[in-house]
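Researcher: Please generate the 3D structure of the following complex. Treat every line as part of one assembly.
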Amino acid sequence: MPKQYAMIIDLNRCVGCHACAIACRAEWDVPVPNQRNWVKRLGPAQTSKGLSYTYYPGLCNHCKDPACVKVCPADVRSMTFTDKETGKTVTQEVAATWKDPFTGAVLIDKNHCIGCGMCVEACPYGARYLNEKLEKADKCTFCVERLEKGLEPACVQTCLAKARIFGDMNDSNSEVAQYIKKGAKGITSAAVNIGPNVYYYGKERDIELLFNKCAPQKMPQASVGERRNLLARMIKGVLPIA
Amino acid sequence: MAEITRRHFLQAAALAAASIPLSRAIKVYAEEKKPDFVPKGSFEDTQSIAGGVCEMCFWRCQLVGKVRNGRLVKLEGNPKSIDNGKAICARGNAGIMLAYDANRLKYPMKNIGERGNPKWQRISWEEALDECGKRLKAVLDKYGPQGISMFPHGASAKYPMDFFETVVGTPNISEASFFQCRGVRDQAYLTTYGHTCDENVDMANAKVIFLTGSHLGENIHVSHTMSYLKGLENGAKLIVIDPRFSAAASKADIWIPIRPGTDTALLLAIMNHLITKGLYDKAFVQANCTGFEEFKKACSLWPAKKAAKECDVPEAQIIKIAELLAQNAPNVAIHPGRFSSWYGNDFQRIRALACLTALLGAYKVPGGFTNPISPKTGSVKWKDAAEPDEKINMAEKWPFHPPGTPTDAIRNAGITGKPYPIKATVIWGQNIVQTIPNQAMTIEFLKKQDFVLCVDVMPTDVTMYADILLPEPTYLERYDVIKKGGKLSTNGPDKQYIAARMPIITPLHDVKDSIFITNEIAKRMGFERHIPVQNQEEYVNKILEPAGLSLEKLRAENGIHIEESTKKAYRNGNELEFETPSGKIELFSKELAEKGFAGAPAYTPPPKRPAGYAHLLFGRVPVHSFTRTQNNLWLHNEMPENALWINDKMAAKMGIKDGDRVKLVNQDGLTSATDTVVLVTPGIKTDAVFLPHGYGMRNPMLEIAKDKGMDDQSLCSANCVDPQTGTHGIRANFVRLVKDGKTISFPI
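Model: Done. Output below.
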């Protein structure tokens, strides 16, 4: 079975230190105030299961059905993906962002990205941003570039609490699969259920607060005005547009 | 769900610009922008430089730096470390932004304006050092060594501190880490056990972890937090005594929201229960403790019922805690705390913690209070050094004071001229405006000086009061401290390690290290013959020498030397020796009694809360080390201001909502200069508010930090000095809210 990379956030271990967010910023040169990786502090607040003071360490969910991929207006090209382990290849039509068929990571080709920001708008989790300097979309890659060098994701490496566990959820022996089996959940709501692959584990009260405060309640929609702006940006310098 | 699809988008695009094919527009656009848009990871084209020792706080994690073309792009934990390993905290990760902070002190400056309202003029090092030498010498000649005071903090301040203490000969040295933080704790353990404690509780192997006020998680020291989490992972029960539902309380099995400042009564009641029910470790106490009878009597003053009322804690909870501790003894971690300067009755509270540890036999056992064995290193002493003259030492009024002189005594002498004038002050790495309670007095002290020298990496609120302001390299650009420690093992030999701080990058700007600065000042004051070392490397090598190490050897070992310990830190049996006057653990101290203090731990209630006011509690957030890190862009961005916690029931009665902006006014009528945002929460006692410490800096040179959040220290005007140690209690302050210019009292 192809891999699906996933991350567990164990809130029983997390102490909310924010190291993950900063390590990511350093690793990928993410400009303030943008973020690929964040920590929001929640509470202390009352829940139906008692008082909770917990955290929302967030990142791209590398969703099963990513809303960001399908809105990309860049030209479609044929791209051949190779499974690093088996050597098997698959060719797919993709725009500037796609979901890798062998790892499940949602990635961007920065050289092909036109910087329109459609994908940024489309993500219900706010996991993408537009790098204003480069005029390119950017997001968490699960550090696949580091994985290729035999390194852990930057946020996992720096986590003193070992609260971030990375692996292949399709491998039933993996620690992430074990966590999912014992109840780790992706953040979803009735309106937003696109198969997130970051899974949260913790006390009932902490999960309740996390979902109440952080689960997105609607899928974003781009307005017509927004689309016009995007278009104006794209063809800026090509045509004189008022 | 109206989905945005690529097809929809193209339709919209076609409507908006029908005349050009979108694909062509994009193609042209892409061709125009050719640079590599793909960010390089820290592993690409970088060199790994080991040997860094962090100083974003003072835990000193061991680092490696990833450097690309001379620029530091990332800091990581040194994979060889047996202390922090590859992990570092948010502050550690953000150290890069200290090195590249645009507001760093970059060259020597002279204040041609006034103190507190400075005008800075760049001067040469030669001129700056001449001026320092001349003016310090003038004060020394006119007022004697006691006319100079020093406020040092951090590794680079050690060498100049030794110079001023043992060559110039002033006893008037006050470190915030002692007198406004943990000195009282160390002195209480020293008095009880004959040695200090640091935070050496073996939480990783504990069955119960007992915290009074320690908010681990909000207060982050990497290996310490790892040890705590290891303990929890292994099933340790966590008891947290705190008026606030802290990060630690949120993980606790038992959270006791105690009335602020009454902890000693609770501890005495726990110990009274252990004694009266025979639940303490009789064999250990018999073999190793002295003064049990007097101690027992002192504890009996606080039966659980009485303490329950005093502390606002159910009696049954007190008994439950005592029994949980007894059932799991001796493998219980009674945490000595870190920031301990609370209410000016702190020595007795920490003594109670030390005694509780002894009653449970939780000493040098897995899970207990166990100092790891650390390698021996040397020291650098100034030539022909001497201790300051006892006759000019003001500290003796507080017989159990930590090293140095209580800050309050120095400040009073500087203001009143009694018992003698203090006319020059050297402030090295410490922001005394935001560490010492009562800012108005500190400012008056500074304004009355003939000369103020500040040495630091960044501007702070106190550097506004300098006459000469000198820039140091950051911890990433210099040699100085030796970090050493030990790692306990329950099933094999202990390990120990030594690391030295070595530069990861070459210093930016026209900065000079503390060895150079101190030596040059010493020469200009006529003390050249006392100089012990010529440079940083020689200084560090001398300290390493007795361990058979050198910088060269450490570098060859990737920055850390690790070896097995020949002895175990855990005890073998019950017979122990202590370097106390009695040779035993002093449950009752004759020395204390002889000097007019309670010989056994005793509870003094904290100053009474005035009606309408709440206790002002403060503490840490994980992304800052006090004021030191406030201007760090990455850290600032994580928590741009310090939310004020207010109890939800109180807030409802006061008409305050979550997200409101308020100022605070304290019991002496002092109002905060800035406002901050309110966090309404059930997670704090009704009679208290909580404000994270370190925010609200005022120095205009801090372009990021200035006026962000609220300065808790500006509201700490009560001067509670602990009678045994001379340390400052800083929590005995009370506040009301100010919203839209209107003062709002707490309805209690």
